[in-house]
Specification:
Elements (H helix, E strand, L loop, with lengths): L1 H12 L6 E6 L2 E7 L2 H4 L6 H9 L8 E5 L5 H9 L4 E4 L9 H6 L3 E4 L3 H13 L1 H7 L9 H5 L2 H10 L1
The structure holds zinc ion.
Zinc ion binds next to helix 4.
Length: 163
């Protein structure tokens, strides 16, 4: 979990959403990642997805554990279910409750190790960036407008090339 927390802090250092994840097999980290929504402009670039991408094609996940600094959302819970990852370990769900019940219903062992340091770290961040966080979990009400929207580099390029 400490390595996942390091990833979260790396994400923060890049101006991103500070959630980190690692994939472990036989006690060894075989993949690591952090949320890159802001950095890459990709709404699906969640920490767990980035971690699985970085681990590459490993074939089977039946001896793997997926660690995340936050309760995995439905997207990431879905990835764990799809790839039949048998165990998911999370640091907290006080700031956000993801798909834990759905994962358990699919036979995944879900363990919340309750790390107060990580809970506080992420809670502080969501207080400072409520809109960015709402966007990440699909809670933003009216999409991005005006100058925020222009920050999306592809849209920005499209608009400017039409002039
Ligand atoms: Zn997610």
């Amino acid at each position: 979990m400490q390595a996942a927390f390091e990833e979260a802090k790396k994400g923060l250092g890049e101006g991103g959403i500070p959630i980190g994840s690692v994939l472990v097999r036989d006690g060894k980290i075989i993949g690591r990642g952090h949320n890159k929504r802001v950095q890459s402009g990709d709404p699906t670039a969640h920490a767990e997805i980035d971690c699985l991408r970085n681990a590459g094609r490993i074939g089977s996940y039946d001896d793997c554990i997926l660690y995340s600094t936050l309760s995995p959302c439905f997207l990431c819970s879905g990835a764990a279910m799809l790839f039949k990852i048998p165990k998911v370990v999370l640091a907290e769900h006080k700031n956000f409750m993801g798909g834990e019940a759905v994962m358990r219903a699919h036979g995944i062992e879900v363990v919340n190790v309750k790390e107060p340091e990580i809970t506080e770290f992420f809670g502080e961040w969501t207080k400072k960036h409520p809109e960015l966080w709402d966007e990440d979990i699909g809670e933003l009400k009216h999409g991005l407008k005006g100058h925020e929207f222009m920050h999306h580099k592809k849209v920005h390029r499209k608009l400017t090339s039409k002039r």
